[in-house]
Design goal:
Layout: H1 2-18, H2 22-57, E1 65-70, E2 78-80, E3 86-90, E4 96-100, E5 112-113, E6 118-120, E7 127-128, E8 134-136, E9 147-151, E10 154-158
Antiparallel strand pairs: 1-10, 2-3, 3-4, 5-6, 6-7, 7-8, 9-10
This protein binds FE2/S2 (inorganic) cluster.
Residues 103, 105-106, 108, 121, 123-124, 126, 137-139 line the site of FE2/S2 (inorganic) cluster.
């Protein structure tokens, strides 16, 4: 029995004598496995990192104003449906305001509720006055007003996205 154990030690020594020591091979394979694991982990984390950073990196391709109609047609408030819905309304001083329909809480589309005479978000119940001021709900600010201009008697609005879940209006694209 002792002779067998001695034989296997001699065999291991003779094998390792022909190449690098066994410990060196094992540590090399361990390091190779570690580097491979790090590379695979890094590759798999790329989509998660892009998903997490998407709101910070998103940009519109081009900022430009869109026509909303002739000024004479605007009375009280008016809903214009195009690629993205906006609301044309008046503030308490009678000035026109164009509001984005994107809820400043988490981005749902906020419809006008005729019975309650308010904008009420269907997702979490945020409510806003007809000129977009916050009444109640989880939104930290009122509805966001868009930049407007008048050209050839046409009301133009520049659609933009704003950061959600913050109390101050901040353009993100
Ligand atoms: S998304 Fe409008 S209240 Fe939450």
């Amino acid at each position: 029995m002792c002779a067998c154990a001695g034989d296997s030690e001699n065999t291991i020594r003779s094998l390792s004598a022909s190449g690098p020591p066994i410990e060196t091979r094992r540590s090399f394979l361990g390091a190779l496995l570690g580097v491979g694991s790090v590379c695979v982990g890094a590759l798999l984390s790329v989509p998660l990192i892009r998903f997490a950073l998407f709101p910070l990196l998103r940009r519109t391709t081009e900022l430009k104003s869109s026509p909303l109609g002739a000024l004479e047609q605007v009375d009280g408030w008016r809903k214009a449906i195009s690629e993205r819905a906006v609301y044309v309304t008046k503030d308490t001083k009678g000035n026109l305001r164009v509001l984005t329909s994107v809820c400043p809480h988490l981005g749902c589309t906020v419809p006008w509720n005729k019975e309650k005479n308010q904008f009420i978000c269907p997702c979490h119940g945020a409510a806003f006055t007809s000129d977009g001021a916050r009444i109640t709900g989880p939104s930290l600010r009122g509805m966001d007003a868009l930049e407007t201009s008048v050209e050839n008697d046409q009301l133009l609005a520049q659609f933009q996205y704003f950061r959600q879940l913050v109390s101050d209006k901040e353009v993100i694209g």
